[in-house]
Amino acid sequence: MDTVTETKPSAVLNELPVEEQKDSIVAVDFKMVTFALAGKDYAIDIMKVKEIAKAGNFTYVPNTVPFVLGVYNLRGEIIPIVDLRRFFNIEVPEYSKSTLESMLIVTVEDQLFGVVVDAIDKVIGIQKSTIQPPHPLFGDINIKYISGVAESNDRLYVLLDVDRIFGVRGPVRMEEENQTSVTTSEPQHTMPEKKEVSTTRVAEPARENITNIDYTFIRDSLQKLKSFYVSPVNEAWVKRRFEEWAASKGGNNVQLLEPQDADSFLSSFYSSQTGVFWSKEYAESVFKSLPDNSAKQITVWNPGCGKGYESYSLACVLKKRYPNARVKIYAQDVDLLNISNAPLLQIPAEVAGGWYKSFVVQSVSGGYTFASEIKDMILFEYHDCIHANTMPVVDIIFARDLLSFVAPSVQATLLGDFDEKLKGNGVVFVGENETLAHIHDWSEKMINSIVVYTKG
């Protein structure tokens, strides 16, 4: 990989005209790196930018989303390269390996990414108080990715929010906005309105009344703090958990006031082996729960795939279960950070030596990664799962813990897509604390502690 120049933003600032630097010294409390996209001016908070570079000849990674150009060796560290123009559906000239791209090296959750733009301009210092709220008229991109608009020297800059672009948030894998759509990966930080609830326990009727109020508050707080929606899919678990929660608090202070409280409440909700490589025992349970299928092509839908641990583990199980079939997994998530990193997922040595052994290879550097036969099974997509119109019919839907994080109206749409896309002999996996048993046309079956659902 060829790097032509690597210049730290501070060096760019020193090259500004003297007049502009003098202006920037007066009451400057915010600096931004400015750049061009499709002839328009944009900017990113300089605190998110590690350095800038011009580079090309990126190493292609198969089965990644179109806006991921590949990976790049930044002084020994392999980082993903995201083309911001393609991400925003801006027309881009045909790419060739000899093309030198203008690139911002940004930091997102302690990880480095290369962000390709048309041209990098300069560093500008402004007063933070002069940044105006975003407006849909500014830029050609979704307003949810814009943190504000700033003016400097008669030029208007659209300030992008890198964290929102890369979907930085808590443990929730799918987000919902305005309670009707999950088309955004924007985190929810709205604090719930605090309700004045008496904690005096004087008589049984009063206790029952307060308990009902507390439960209602728990429901509302889970939605506001973590976009977790209580519905028939998970209500049985929520009620059981509420009883445990209230008992552990001694009947007092059961309210969820901060995201950490909601995390604690939901700590036992998530399915086994979430966010980790599967154990041999769990993999065998999933293996036994898969139906017989002699088809030559088996298609799997894995919405809310997260960092990819689940997708790769599932791919290995499917390869073992259907050795003669061509398996394709559509692994989708609205978290750009996860989707960009998933194809590069490394395997710890202790995991590579376990039941995964026949599915991994060792690189020249000594690290472990999945063999091409496993990687080729998975197509990682930056995609909102409720827009399933492009999905083919599928044999298996693996959607653990997903339904609880979409609004009930959206949930109904998603379940309709499950019904439409699933073949007659197909199966659906949902979270261990979720159920479809109450929903018309879905039948529940338990196989070796794993619950699967089939049509009718």
Characterize the structure shown.
The strands form 5 sheets. The chain has a 6-stranded mixed β-sheet. Strands 9-2-3-11-10 form a 5-stranded mixed β-sheet. With 456 residues, it is an alpha/beta fold. The N and C termini lie far apart (55 Å). It has helices at residues 9-14, 18-25, 84-87, 162-165, 204-226, 235-248, 259-266, 280-289, 309-321, 336-341, 349-352, 372-375, 408-421; strands spanning 2-7, 30-37, 40-45, 49-56, 68-74, 77-83, 101-108, 111-117, 119-126, 146-152, 155-160, 297-303, 326-333, 360-362, 368-370, 378-382, 394-399, 422-430, 442-447, 450-455. Helix 8 (280-289) packs across helix 9 (309-321). A hairpin with a 2-residue loop joins strand 10 and strand 11. It is globular, with a radius of gyration of 25 Å.
Overall body shape:
globular
Count of strand segments: 20
Terminal-residue CA separation = 55 Å
Structural class: alpha/beta
List the strand order in the largest sheet: 1-4-7-8-6-5
Residue share in β-strands: 25-35%
Unreliable spans: 1-24, 169-210
Tally of contiguous helical segments: 13
Helix content: 25-40%
The main sheet comes to: 6 strands, mixed
- Overall average residue pLDDT: 81
Write down the Rg.
25 Å
